[in-house]
Each structure stands twice: as C-alpha cells, then as structure tokens.
Design a protein that fits this description.
Layout lengths: L20 E3 L2 E7 L9 E7 L1 H16 L4 H18 L6 H22 L4 H11 L28 H8 L7 H9 L17 E5 L12 E5 H15 L27
C-alpha cells in the first residue's frame, strides 16, 4: 500500500533499555523480575511520561496564575486535574499523582504570595484552606485495565458480561446495568453470578419503593427477590388476639369476672 514509518518518530531500542519508549503520553519500559517473580522473567512498566507530566503541570500553573478569584481557580483547575488523572488511572501513576498534588499546592502558595500574603507561613495556611476546593490527583483510585475476552463482542447480546464490565448495556435499563457493575455481576442475595438466562429484579432493601437511593437498591434473581420478599412480609406480620368489639363483648379466651381464672 506504499506505507512507510516516519524516521523522526521511530526508535528501535533493546528490550531492557532504561529510557523505554514514550507513546501517547506514556513511558513504556521493561525490567527484569526478581527471584520471587520467577514465573515472569520480564515485567512491563507503564507510567506517565516525563514530558506529559511537565505539560500538565505547566497547564495547571497557568490556570492558577491567571485565575481572578478562588472560585475561578477551582473551575479552571478542576477539569485539568480530573481529565489527567482519568487518563492515567489504569497505569502505575500513584507516585505521579502525589507529586502533581504537591506541585499544585506550591503553585497556589506562589499565587497567594504574589497577591499580597506577607509571609510564606501565612500563604501556606491560606493555601491549605483553598486546596480543599480543588480536586486531588491522589483521590483517583488506580484501576487496572482488564482485557476483553477473546470470544466477546459488544454485539453478541451478552448483557451480563458487558454491563458488569462497563455499567451499561442496550439490553438492560441504566439502573440495572449500574447495579450489575456495582455488584460485580453477582446477585445481591445468593451472591451467585448472574447470566443471560436469568430474570432480574430490583430489590429495595428497606422495603420502601419510594427510596431509590443507590445504597437501598440491589439487583437479584427473580426467585431470590420473591423469596426475600416473602421473608420480609412474614417478619412484618403481627399476630395478636382479636380485640374486644365493644365493652359488652369479649374475646373467647378472656374469663368473666365471676368464674375461675385459667391456670
């Protein structure tokens, strides 16, 4: 087809080169495993590249420097932080996130010093309060990417697999799909894995169907839902003696005033 590699963007390096390869903001390199990891002789490490970290910190620094107020600073910095940490949430980025938070904090301190804080200590105290308005890189939980099974396709109709993986499926309502992902594909009652052939129902834990908070909802097998509902109704049932209809009538087992009492 006449395609060729661009020489300026192509590098050939040894497998265990320390500098690794930069690609789409990631640094990819391989290291030799220790004796304890004998099953895997070579391990691949993927981290945010040095240039990507510099570009992100420069963007955050500029957003902080040109903000006219604290609220403006938060609104300008928040999308930068959230977008960057989401992009790198599947790789080895925990230390990078902490480093970015530290640099962001000191950029805020520099901004406050420029705006008139008399001492560095005063600026630091104000920055600690102000940084509560800003999202933190380190708040992002690292979630490793899980490969799609080789036989799976988004068009195969396996809602149980795709909703558990993505939290959405064209074959399920958004609420059921979100619950399926939250419960990691398992029934909230019997904890068995849900499959395509199952009939699903949403259960309200406290029995109040008007309480649709996320913590009050569970996705169950239909038969599990029916069993759990029967149990809840049985527990709520109260068995008391039939009350007296009027003052002249009495329950069957209630003795009259002149007769002997029951033992």
């Amino acid at each position: 087809m006449g395609l060729t590699l661009k020489e300026s963007k192509t590098r050939i390096i040894p497998p265990l080169a320390k500098e690794g390869v930069d690609f789409l903001g990631f640094q990819i390199r391989q290291i030799r495993c220790s004796v304890r990891q004998a099953k895997r002789k070579i391990k691949t490490l993927i981290v945010p590249s040095r240039e990507a970290k510099k570009r992100h910190q420069a963007a955050v620094r500029e957003a902080i420097r040109h903000a006219s107020s604290h609220l403006a600073m938060a609104s300008h910095v928040a999308p930068l932080v959230v977008g960057w940490r989401n992009y790198y949430r599947t790789v080895i980025a925990k230390e990078s996130f902490k480093r970015q938070d530290d640099l962001m904090f000191w950029n805020v301190v520099a901004k406050l010093r420029y705006k008139g804080s008399k001492t560095k200590a005063a600026a630091v105290q104000k920055a600690k309060v102000l940084n509560q308005l800003l999202p933190k890189h380190a708040d992002q939980k690292i979630t490793r990417h899980i490969k799609v099974k080789g036989t799976k396709s988004p068009y195969d109709g396996d809602w149980a697999y795709w909703a558990t993986r993505l939290g959405k499926s064209p074959d399920l309502s958004p609420r059921k799909a979100a619950l399926l992902k939250r419960q990691q594909g398992r029934c909230g009652h019997c904890h068995l894995r849900l499959i395509m052939e199952n009939l699903l129902e949403v259960h309200h834990v406290d029995g109040n169907h008007k309480n649709n908070r996320q913590g009050n909802l569970q996705l169950l097998h239909r038969h599990c839902h029916q069993e759990l509902t029967r149990t809840m109704l049985h527990d709520k049932a109260t068995h008391v003696e039939e009350p007296c209809a009027v003052k002249i009538a009495s329950t069957v087992l209630k003795p009259s005033g002149g007769s002997d009492t029951f033992a």
